Amino acid sequence: MGVEIRAEGLVMTYGDVRAVDGVSFTVAPGEFFGLLGPNGAGKTTALEMIEGLRRPMAGTVRIDGHDPWNREPELQRRMGVQLQASSFFERLTAREQLDTFGALYGVAAGRTDQMLEQVGLVDKADVRTEDLSGGQKQRLSIACALIHDPEVVFLDEPTAALDPQARHNLWDVLRTINHSGRTVILTTHYMDEAEALCDRVAIMDAGRILEMDTPAALVRGLDAPVRISLAPGTLSLADARAVAGSDAVDVDDPGTTITTRDAARVLSDLAARDALGGLSVKGASLEDVFLDLTGRQYRA
């Protein structure tokens, strides 16, 4: 179960714009892999080439040794694809949509009820898709991609438009799929989602991969300071500066936040002063890595 995916030197241009510019990576069987990047970074275009929906202008894609552009029926049956924009058959209910998708793959009818339960749409089973909310349509789209129990799953921003409960419930579904040995590739703008789900991530911008590693390794490589927040009134500004020491990155006024690269020593000193009540510690995250690599300017 699970398949290997190899992308080598993928290129796609639109006029003078190189949307994908020499992208290469390998996804191991059973790996959960994330493609991250700001709007226009090229991640959706790269994903569509890997899925076989676009033919690369240069480079190659192999899924378990097969070229997805050839549309081999046996390979397509092993793939599940959820696109960024959902599209359904008109005037069908959620149940009928899943029954139709399942019939295309020869799936037993009982699978529909299972998928409705997994994505939390049991109470909407007999509602036409045009009457579903945006988040409900998104969940139905994911259910359609998973109805035939594929070995490799492609998800393009799967939790866009979902509320926090639906996001976390879907994470559980995706973890279960991946832990059963399936290969999963997703794009997402939610860095906490990538940290929670992905074994490795590739951060893209301007059509190229900037960094690729496990989320934890990327965060460690950033070497960012730690923010230690104290309950108001715990220390005076002078005491907070004394605890922080001369190598502190910053101590705010009135001394409720110490930013330091020597968190262990600062925490030890705070413990000695009995100043740990209400304290919180925040280190760097994948979002910090993302912003460090891609910048903070607005994207069109």
UniProtKB/TrEMBL annotation:
SUPFAM superfamilies listed in its UniProt record: P-loop containing nucleoside triphosphate hydrolases
UniProt-listed Pfam families: ABC_tran
InterPro entries recorded: AAA+_ATPase (IPR003593), ABC_transporter-like_ATP-bd (IPR003439), ABC_transporter-like_CS (IPR017871), ABC_transporter_ATP-binding (IPR050763), P-loop_NTPase (IPR027417)
Gene Ontology CC annotation, any one: plasma membrane
Alphabetized Gene3D superfamilies for the sequence: P-loop containing nucleotide triphosphate hydrolases
Keywords (A to Z) from UniProt: Antibiotic resistance, ATP-binding, Cell membrane, Membrane, Nucleotide-binding, Translocase, Transport
Compartments (UniProt record): Cell membrane
A molecular function (GO) term: ATP binding
Main location, first listed in the record: membrane
UniProt entry tagged with the keyword Nucleus: no
A biological process term (GO) from this entry: response to antibiotic
Bilayer disposition of the protein: Peripheral membrane protein
Record-stated family: Belongs to the ABC transporter superfamily.
Protein name in UniProt: ABC transporter
Organism: Aeromicrobium chenweiae
Lineage: Bacteria, Bacillati, Actinomycetota, Actinomycetes, Propionibacteriales
